């Protein structure tokens, strides 16, 4: 145990969440595999700790489990984020397979979204504070880290097409959208659609973890009159190529990311999120000591709910 932190503490500051078609990290040496338990239950699978050639460590988690056995609505997002936090993660680069809502975003293109529209249906646990007796409201107007997006965008040359900016719609699923819904999201100005950005991005923000998601277009969803609506077969066919490009992008960006989280004394990359929840609490700190969920919250926030 370190500084009131969890027994899993490892100081692995970089986390990667792989989505559909991205179930492992290649090109890095795996040094440890952790079965982490959190106060919110178990994450989707083991956390793999890998080491880069430069001696820095990266934690990897497959969002739907290593065999993709967890539906998007049934992912334990709280456990996933809490588990990454427990091993020391300060910045998460997530990957997500998405449908394109724009002709110009072709299957195979990557988009670093900067906005998210929540179309989930309230069935997902989306806050660490639920049931704890502590009221907190994270700032979420900018749901994705601008600094992490900019860092990744500098490595656009590693993939065929990478757009810096765009809006994703996170739908509930598991069935894909109707044509009318797909057109509705287009009329709202959305660029891509998936089923996992929310609550993942929200929980990362609550956990004070810097978060960005690389959205990898696999299909044109259901809006195009001239084409058949999306199927899983179509998604997985495109993901075969996308997965290779995702790994290339990660390996290209990793040296910069390592410098930013392990070597920069100003901590400029993670600084906007680190400590951000101190402004989110409704009640004064004295209240936290008596809160029913204090022990649970200490797992994520040793600084606010310490012994
Ligand atoms: C298999 S298509 C629908 C599935 O793909 C995306 O997964 P992820 O975001 O984890 O890459 C989408 O969000 C759905 O969960
Ligand atoms: N069209 C689509 N809708 C929702 N999630 C997706 N993931 C990949 N393609 C998708």
Layout of SSEs?
Blueprint: E1 14-18, E2 29-34, E3 47-51, E4 57-62, H1 77-86, E5 91-100, E6 110-112, E7 115-119, H2 146-153, E8 162-164, E9 167-171, H3 179-187, E10 192-194, H4 197-206, E11 210-219, H5 232-263, H6 285-288, H7 294-300, H8 302-305
Parallel strand pairs: 1-4, 1-5, 5-11, 6-8, 7-9, 9-10
Antiparallel strand pairs: 2-3, 3-4, 5-10, 6-11
The protein binds ligand LNRAV4D5 and adenine.
The site of adenine has 13 residues, from strand 5, strand 10 and strand 11.
Average pLDDT number: 95
Low-confidence runs: none
Q: Classify the beta-strand content into a percent band.
A: 15-25%
For the biggest sheet, the summary is: 11 strands, mixed
CATH architecture: 3-Layer(aba) Sandwich
Q: Tell me which oligomeric state these chains represent.
A: single chain
Structural class: alpha/beta
Quick one: overall form? globular
Give me the CATH fold name.
Rossmann fold
Terminal CA distance reads 13 Å
How many separate domains? 1
Order of helices and strands: EEEEHEEEHEEHEHEHHHH
CATH class: Alpha Beta
**What is the name of the CATH superfamily?**
Nucleoside phosphorylase domain
Using only C-alpha atoms, the radius of gyration works out to: 19 Å
Kindly state the percentage of residues in helix. 25-40%
Number of strands: 11
What are the distinct ligands in this entry?
the ligand CSC[C@H]1O[C@H](OP(=O)(O)O)[C@H](O)[C@@H]1O, adenine
Number of helical regions = 8
């Amino acid at each position: 145990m370190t500084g009131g932190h969890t027994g899993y503490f490892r100081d692995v500051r970089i986390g990667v969440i792989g989505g559909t078609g991205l179930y492992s990290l290649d090109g890095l040496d795996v040094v440890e595999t952790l079965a982490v338990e959190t106060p919110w239950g178990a994450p989707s699978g083991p956390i793999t700790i890998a080491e880069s050639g430069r001696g820095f460590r990266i934690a990897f988690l497959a969002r739907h489990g290593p065999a993709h056995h967890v539906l998007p609505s049934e992912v334990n997002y709280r456990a996933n984020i809490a588990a990454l936090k427990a091993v020391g993660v300060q910045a998460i680069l997530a990957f997500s397979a998405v449908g394109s809502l724009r002709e110009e975003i072709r299957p195979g293109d990557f988009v670093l979204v900067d906005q998210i529209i929540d179309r989930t249906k309230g069935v997902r646990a989306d806050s660490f504070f639920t049931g704890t007796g502590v009221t907190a409201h994270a700032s979420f107007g900018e749901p994705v880290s601008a600094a992490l997006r900019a860092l990744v965008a500098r490595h656009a040359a590693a993939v065929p097409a990478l757009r810096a900016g765009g809006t994703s719609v996170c739908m509930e699923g598991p069935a894909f959208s109707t044509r009318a819904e797909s057109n509705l999201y287009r009329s709202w100005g959305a660029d891509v659609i998936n089923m996992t950005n929310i609550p993942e991005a929200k929980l990362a923000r609550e956990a004070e973890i810097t978060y960005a998601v690389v959205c990898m277009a696999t299909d044109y969803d259901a809006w195009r009159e001239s084409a058949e609506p999306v199927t899983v077969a179509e998604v997985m066919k495109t993901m075969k190529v996308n997965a290779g490009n995702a790994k290339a992008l990660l390996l290209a960006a990793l040296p910069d990311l390592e410098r930013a989280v392990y070597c920069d004394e100003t901590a400029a990359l993670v600084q906007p999120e680190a400590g951000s929840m101190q402004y989110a609490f409704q009640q004064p700190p004295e209240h936290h000591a008596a809160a029913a969920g204090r022990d649970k919250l200490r797992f994520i926030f040793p600084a606010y709910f310490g012994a």
